[in-house]
């Protein structure tokens, strides 16, 4: 067994920024969002299931998931969100397991935005790392990045696990309230901590 870190956090908290820094340190990062994107691109293996459940209206002309339409639906309709998750999660989980098996860095980061909402990863993950920031930064950074309005970001935050619950379940928390340089320094400290923990998780 090697050390597998589950990285999570709310929308716009800095998960991608954090995983980019771990990658630069030579650590393999498996990203559930990227896998979901692959599954839902044109010819992606989730597309026929989505078409069957949601109808042709949710498929773009190029054969990929009509992302904007689906996002609008699932953040206003919990039942539809669950239906989409039921299609995607098992497929994502299979791919994550496969990527973990072939990963070769000293430890592996698996970035899963919904890690704490889904019980299914407890077998693979040894420690949970939460990237956290104040809600005001989640909102302003997401508005800046995605061009969403404040209400849209707030409704996404409301549909996710609460910050406090996330922090309660974390083994480690990195607070991303300052600039990117500060985040980089914090990630490097965390990276060294994981390296120092490797013996504990080494194969016996
Ligand atoms: P999502 O859940 O929406 O995928 P995320 O958690 O991956 O988001 P990022 O994409 O890393 O978050 O960060 C959101 C935005 O905030 C990005 O545009 C990123 O460049 C910016 N950002 C992240 N951390 C900081 C920071 N410390 N200072 C300024 N901007 C930041």
Structure notes:
- The structure is a single chain.
- This protein has about 200 residues and is an alpha/beta fold.
- The chain has a single domain, classed as P-loop containing nucleotide triphosphate hydrolases (Rossmann fold).
- It is about 55% helix and about 10% strand.
- It has a five-stranded parallel β-sheet, sandwiched between helices.
- Helix 1 crosses helix 9 and helix 2 crosses helix 5.
- The termini are close together.
- The model has no long low-confidence stretch (mean pLDDT about 95).
- The site of adenosine-5'-triphosphate has 16 residues, from helix 1, helix 6 and helix 9.
Structural class: alpha/beta
CATH topology call: Rossmann fold
Overall tally of domains: 1
Query: What's the shape?
Result: globular
CATH superfamily: P-loop containing nucleotide triphosphate hydrolases
Radius of gyration, CA atoms, in whole angstroms:
17 Å
CATH architecture call: 3-Layer(aba) Sandwich
Give me the count of strands: 5
The count of helical stretches stands at 9
């Amino acid at each position: 067994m090697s050390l597998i870190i589950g990285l999570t956090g709310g929308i716009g908290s800095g998960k991608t920024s954090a995983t980019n820094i771990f990658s630069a340190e030579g650590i393999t990062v498996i990203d559930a969002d990227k896998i979901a994107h692959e599954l839902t691109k044109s010819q992606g293996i989730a597309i026929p299931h989505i078409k069957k459940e949601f109808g042709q209206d949710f498929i773009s002309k190029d054969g990929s998931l009509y992302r904007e339409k689906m996002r609008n639906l699932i953040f206003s309709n919990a039942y539809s969100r669950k239906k989409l998750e039921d299609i995607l999660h098992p497929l994502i989980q299979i791919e994550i397991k496969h990527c973990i098996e072939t990963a070769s860095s000293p430890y592996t980061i698996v970035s899963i935005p919904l890690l704490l909402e889904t019980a299914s990863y407890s077998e693979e993950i040894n420690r949970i790392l939460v990237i956290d920031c104040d809600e005001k930064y989640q909102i302003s950074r997401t508005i800046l990045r995605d061009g969403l309005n404040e209400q849209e970001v707030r409704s996404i935050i409301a549909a996710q696990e609460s910050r406090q619950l996330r922090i309660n379940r974390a083994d480690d928390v990195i607070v991303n309230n300052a600039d990117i340089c500060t985040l980089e320094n914090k990630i490097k400290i965390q990276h060294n901590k994981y390296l120092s923990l490797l013996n504990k998780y080494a194969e016996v």
